[in-house]
Amino acid sequence: MVVRENAKALLAIVLAATGAIVTALEGDQTISVLEWVQIGLFVVGSGGVTWWVTKMQAAKAIVAGLAAALTVLYTAVQDDSIVTNNEWALVALAGLAALAAVYGIPNAEGEES
Hints:
The chain is mostly helical. The chain contains 6 helices and no strands.
């Protein structure tokens, strides 16, 4: 069963999201655009996600691409919550570069796909 095999990863994702949302709601009881981007970073970057996809090269590449794109988006949103076309281009380029790099580099010998 997929859920049982990946219970630790799923739990890590849920805990990362819950922790980030609770922290974001503290104080003003709202979640800003910047805080939503941070929540995305916590979930995508959690160790659980990485552990969950270690057997799939394509999934690892997608996680790396999302993490890179969200990191650039976080930086873009910090100044005024408005993302310019140039900043969107940087978000896309960072995501695609990380995706391509991770997908293109083969796993160490002995690691599954």
